[in-house]
Design brief:
The chain is mainly α and 271 residues long. It has helices spanning 2-5, 7-11, 19-40, 48-74, 77-83, 87-98, 105-122, 133-157, 162-183, 193-217, 223-228, 233-245, 251-268. It has one domain (2-268). The protein contains 13 helices and no strands.
């Protein structure tokens, strides 16, 4: 979770890089590094069936990023941030209704606290205006695609290693974002060396270490627990921003963040 939370901190130095381009390069650099690691330490190849599922999950991951950043343009950042972290509600529904899995009261309590904490952080910043309907729907859709991707990933990860899976997943997401960047006429080139270094850091820290850890964990714990992890990002990012940039952290952020972290701790203890 800490690794994922570095994303907005690193992105602070990438003001001149469009959001879709940031997503493309973090997936691109992440996949390249994993493929290079595969040259040093041989990884088992994916079977045809697992490859198909990983490709689908990769496309969903790319669409997730595109929808999230698209929603930011059509709704408020508060709306997009909150609605974009509702993936655990979709994974929970799929696990319960389709996969027929039962969940303990601790999981329900932890998930409920995490969501309540997120609501407190957003507070009165959430805007229900009809002007933001399309953006809000895109943010919800981005959560849905991420949640479904986690369900698919769980199935594949039960059979293959993290690197074999993640290198293909990130590569597919990068290709998906490349196509989307062409459609949106978003430039992928022409940035400074410092900006490319920042993009490389995004590919290493929040992508390989952050998302990679989530896809490692999904082999052993419920996709709902994994999907809830990003809910802790706002409070951890705020603390890092306070430490690095001397930014103030509001009382509601501390209160909501604390409740969210308690919820996530309960989820972490869930087997």
């Amino acid at each position: 979770m800490l690794s994922v939370s570095t994303s907005p901190i690193i992105a602070r130095y990438l003001d001149n890089v469009p959001a879709v381009s940031i997503s493309f390069w973090r997936m691109c650099f992440g996949s390249i590094i994993l493929w290079l690691i595969s040259l040093i330490k041989k990884q088992d190849p994916l079977t045809n069936e697992n490859l198909k599922r990983t490709l689908i999950a990769g496309v969903f991951l790319g669409i997730h990023f595109a929808l999230f950043f698209g929603s930011i343009k059509l709704t408020t950042i508060a709306n997009a941030t909150f609605l974009g972290t509702l993936a655990p509600l979709f994974t929970f529904s799929i696990e319960k209704k389709i996969l027929k899995r039962s969940h303990t009261s601790r999981l329900l309590l932890g998930l409920g606290l995490a969501i309540c904490g997120a609501i407190i952080i957003i507070g009165n910043q959430f805007n229900f205006s009809s002007d933001y309907t399309m953006g809000n729907l895109m943010a919800v859709a981005c959560s849905m695609f991420l949640g479904i991707g986690f369900i698919i990933s769980e199935n594949v990860r039960s059979k293959v290693g993290t690197i074999s899976f993640s290198r293909t997943l990130f590569s597919t997401a990068a290709i998906t974002l490349f196509v989307i960047s062409i459609i949106m006429n978003s430039s992928l080139l022409g940035y400074s060396n410092n900006e490319y270094f920042g993009l490389l850091l995004l590919g290493i820290i929040p992508t390989i270490l952050g998302h990679g850890s989530m896809y490692f964990a999904i082999r052993y714990i419920s996709p709902t627990i994994v999907a809830a992890t990003p809910m802790g990002e706002p409070i951890l990012a705020s603390i890092m921003a306070w430490f690095l940039f001397n930014e103030s952290v509001g009382h509601m952020t501390l209160l909501g963040g604390s409740i969210t972290l308690i919820g996530l701790l309960l989820l972490a203890k869930q087997k």
